[in-house]
Amino acid sequence: MELSVNDTPAYVYTGGRPFDRRQAVVVLVHGAGHDHSVWNYQARQLAHHGFSVLAPDLPGHGRSQGAPLPTIEALADWIESLLDAAGVVHAALAGHSMGSLVALQAAAQAPARITKLILLGSVAPMPVAPPLLEAAARTRDSAHAMINQWSYTPASQLGASPVPGVSLTGLNLRLMERQRDGVLANDLAACNAYQGGLEAAGRIRVPCAMLCGERDQMTPRKAVKPLQEALANVPGGARMIVIKGAGHAMMAEAPDAVGDAMRGFLTTT
Amino acid sequence: MTQPRTFGPETLALHAGQSPDPAFGARAAPIYFTTSYVFPDADHAAALFNLERPGHVYTRISNPTNAMLEERIAALEGGIGAIAVASGQAALHLAITTLMGAGGHIVASHALYGGSHNLLAYTLPRFGITTTFVDPRNPDAWRAAVRPETRLFFGESLGNPGLDVLDIPAIAGIAHAHRVPLLVDATLVTPCLQRPLALGADLVLHSATKFLGGHGVAVGGLLVDGGRFDWEASGLFPTLTEPYDGFHGMDFAEESPVAAFLLRARREGLRDFGACLSPMNAFQILQGMETLPLRMRAHVANARAVAEHLAAHPLVAHVAWPGLASHPDHALAARLLPDGAGSVLSFELQGGRAAGRAFIEGLRVFSHLANVGDAKSLVIHPASTTHFRMSAQDLAAAGIGEGTVRLSVGLESVDDLIEDLNRGLYAASRVVQG
Ligand SMILES: Cc1ncc(COP(=O)(O)O)c(C=O)c1O
Fold first, then answer.
1. Which residues form the signal peptide (chain B) (predicted)?
2. B182 and B315, same domain (yes or no)
């Protein structure tokens, strides 16, 4: 569906079911250079099991108009505006990679509105390797190739895909190619510059899950520790869920395990 | 962060789409000979139908062995995915019916495989889909044929059997200027000699019956989606950009801007028209594809030797193989087919129809049959077989004469092939001399 967020048209995918704000609302925030379609399976699973899903294309991404927003803080503000535009008071937030920083920051900024937090492939701070930053700004194709190489496990680069007949890396390459010029560079720069993550984490007082791909090379398990420890005020501590066999692109590589983990966490905590 | 590397075609041909079997560790591709798949529980069943989870429900729609084949060709072509179907013809039908209904119009090269020509010229008009055939070498002809109802451009990498080289970048540019995709039949080149998607095509089809299998034991087709065409921006494809009552009211381009075509083709075309591939055939084609890069190199080397030998023979008026400097598309082939122009070639025998017949009957190693792309060398006389429905005038327009002989040069010892051709040429010479 289309919403007007800050007077700018934004496209929001709802997981194949009409949006109904009377149900528990989950917002799914995609990562750098992506759009809502990275969430297809998880969004559909949640939408068919009692949740109302808002999976927006962030400004300047996919079908959403406007310029891409330059900072994680500005994106977090935008998520709040999205909730306003949808007439939603309370929502759970989930984000992947850059989207996880946006979700974290939004949850810290609006503690009264955010009921639960799911961080997928998340580390804070999130420094981006200089060659990737540079490639994103100058030679997009090589940046896309680097992201594919580092986001998908060797098994999913060469072996069978969980989605019959679909090449996961091929699909991701074309999804990144579709974004407008400058979008990926903007997003990676925003990740790289964001320094407020650990401080924001200290302000989170709602249940929080961290999903980490067992073989993630972009945001590896070891690197997740500081953020997990900074989520010190989360009741019972942040729950770490390791997605077996998956890399950073866990929603694509392990769609069932990720969807089940998200639904399980949202349903039981 | 190290520089990324991608796998080479030899590696992809052996591995892409196939992990060691999770149940027993089998290294070879298992044949999942099953029509249907057990649901662990009712919730899981519903989730599969709702597309909340990927997976298999019924082999008409997807099958694990077929998926290996689909993912392998997608990787080799640089696409986002593929659909395996019962034949090359079924792949063409699936592409067309996914994009348009009655009232739709296609602009196609006139140098097409006879079966594709039949479908477009005679059969689809009964369902309200019409085609204008154009000279593939003339960009203005493609442009001039476009109508408001045009929804697809279609041509063959190498026109069968005229061997015209399709100028994919140029024709794709014209298609895109008119907001329609270009579908390329790449059967005669395979991804080892040309990757049409990288040249600007949007969709690729193969008769996997031919070089991909290579053994001549299995009929099959593959339709590959490049994932680049922007259906939404085009605005000409309501099947992809409007809710479909037949599948959860899904708007495919909203669901997946990149994979909309593939989604609709599987969820509608494969489901409803039902031209699915047998997993046995998928297995056999996979076996063939393992050696595709090796075979294509050998095919091209033999084709070159045969073409050069024929071109130097006094009884041969003309050899059509884009690898020869005498071919009008030689320069284009050097650009678009740098690793070789395939191994199908045609030549014009002096002495016309009678000489053609004597030639074919004089051969012992080449098999006289209606196919191309087998590991074994094949020969046919189009005017009396594949293209017999066409008038002399249409034949001439497709570059076929009465004495035209088409060869699919196989992998035998090249000396044996040349010896065999000499035998046929000698027989033909006796006819010519009376
Ligand atoms: C170039 C080309 N395309 C398509 C086809 C049709 O393929 P199939 O026979 O697998 O239906 C053929 C078959 O000869 C062909 O040569």
1. none
2. no
